[in-house]
Amino acid sequence: MNHIRAAESKDIKRILELLVQVDMVHHNGRPDLFKGPATKYNAEELETIFQNEKTPVFVCVDERDCVIGHAFCIMKQNVGDSVLTDIRTLYIDDICVDETVRGSGVGKQLYEYVERYAKENGFYNVTLNVWSCNPGAMRFYESLGLIPQKICMEKIIGSS
């Protein structure tokens, strides 16, 4: 049975492997923007992230305590902004389920864990970004009740 817990140093090697999977999904969808294969963090940066209470990272592990998915979160709040309210947001910076177990409910488990964590810790909302080149992820998040908050648009005007 799967279990979700806070990420630990012993998980770094496996999380780095999952981060490559995330990058490759994006690279395959937008090779003009994403290098591949790559990771957005290195092992040292992961250690720092794990130790920061404002950047909780949760992992879903299988019965052997092997990481099969992760959710990187960032606590955000705009205090004293002239336009925005002071709500506390839990932003999901990165969520990944190992490609070998996608479709088995791990992603839903991770998201629901993050949502419970947000409720228990007094956050107003949970947000995340999803690339339009990843329609499967968009459908997945919509199935969990997420709706668009804002949309980033682009027009490519030059070659890379």
Textual characterization of the structure:
This protein has 160 residues and is α+β, with helices and mostly antiparallel strands. The protein contains four helices and five strands. It has a five-stranded mixed β-sheet with strand order 1-2-3-4-5. It is globular. The mean pLDDT is 96.
Defining key terms:
160 residues; alpha+beta; 5-stranded mixed sheet
Question: Helix/strand-derived class?
Answer: alpha+beta
Rg (CA only): 16 Å
Please summarize the sheet with the most strands: 5 strands, mixed
Strand order of the largest sheet: 1-2-3-4-5
Low-confidence stretches: none
Assess the beta-strand content as a share of residues.
Answer: 15-25%
Mean pLDDT: 96
Q: What is the rounded distance between the termini? A: 46 Å
> Strand tally, please?
5
Into which percent range does the helicity of residues fall?
25-40%
Shape: globular
